[in-house]
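Before surveying the methods themselves, let us examine one representative protein, pairing a chain with its fold in token form.
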Amino acid sequence: MQGTIRAKSEIITDVIIYIVMGLAGLITIYPFLNVLAISFNESMDTVKGGITVLPREFTLQNYITIFQYKTLLTGFQNSVLRTIIGTVVGVLSASMMAFVLSRREFQARKLFSPLFAMTMYFSGGMIPIYMLIKNLGLMSSFWVYIIPLILSVWNIFVVRSYIDGLPYALQESAKIDGANDFTIFWRVILPLCQPVLATIALFIAVQHWNSWFDTYLYNQQAAQFTTLQYELMKVLQSTQSGSNYRDASVQQNLAAVSPESIRMAITMVVTLPILVVYPFLQKYFVKGMTLGSVKS
């Protein structure tokens, strides 16, 4: 009898958990489905409101209007190239610096760690950074997207914490076998750090993919180095202000769509690449965020 009661209580508990989690999932996914529905809905009909998770009058005109911009393809190529190069360089630089700071033989690590941490809380500000970029000759160049973001102190500390959680005997064994520091880093540490490297890779990739303000500051006059997000921002501004900085045919199409429809279509265009990449990194991402959080 007691076993039956316990079984019933467990079933009731499971049902409550499933209901709560289902509601939480629905609340989480509804905004995304709503944005997707509006992006595919006819623009003038969207103004009436009442769109939920399905478009009332399906159309591709919102996306057609966006992709009529001639510089959009150039911006897409630059954003993809920037994201790939920036992510690879950022992951390698953060992991190498973290490896150095984690070495017990490095006597100055207690000095450098607070100095690095200080940069997370104090900055010179926008004007000094702009002057520095200008004096370095990085204005109107592609490398202005890569060089200033090579190192992230936060990523360094995340990777270092993960490395500190690995058995140090692995490095000692490799050194006994004749491996130098670079071999230990490349063949021992990096393979074991896949979860945390995938985690920071996702952070870096999202940062590069979503960035547009640096294009506005440094490459506004260099159309060949424009980015997708900057071009989409200009599309959105043109629908809101009615400005005409493209050819007449594009401006005529913009006049036939609402800013809300264009905004939702832009949101989907910017979000989709990250959504495609995330499932491949999800298992590493979750593992990298949890491993090392509890130490024995």
